[in-house]
Specification:
The protein is mostly helical. It has 6 helices and no strands. Helix 2 (about 25-50) packs across helix 3 (about 50-85), helix 3 (about 50-85) runs parallel beside helix 5 and helix 4 (about 90-105) packs antiparallel against helix 5. About 15% of the residues are buried.
Amino acid sequence: NARWCANRATGHQPQGISQMHPLLPFLLVFVGAPLVELYLLIEVGSVIGALWTVLLVVLTAVIGVSLLRIQGFNTLNRARQNMEMGTLPAMEMMEGMMLAIGGALLITPGFITDTLGFLCLIPATRRGMIHYLMRRSSMQAGFYNHRTTHYKRDHHQQGNHQGRTIEGEYHRDD
């Protein structure tokens, strides 16, 4: 316990099993996920046949891209409306990023990636994922409120003293 406190105070991390190699997540995503997808495609193909499996993968991609187009236009329209009202379209920008990720997952062959891509297309799950990511990130301090998507111009006056805000002006001397 004393060693943990000393390591914590000096910023040293103990070496061992609990410390994960920084490339491991990339290895899991770019090697592990395709292997799982390939296994699942082979298993489904052995049950319904190879042609039907390929047609099913193509069909999910076509349906997904069509839904992506509709959701993208809806999100773009909401962003325009927010900007016309003078509010920052923060949620719409995040939704656009999630839709791009969902689109990439949908055009990637496989059932797991298609499922994750479709989850990005459903507005409720997409917003739920965004809220989860925002709560886990440091971006919410001063810029994002999980109940509204309005930019808080006067957040320092509303009692929100989570971060250090320095206001000022600048000009270029070139």
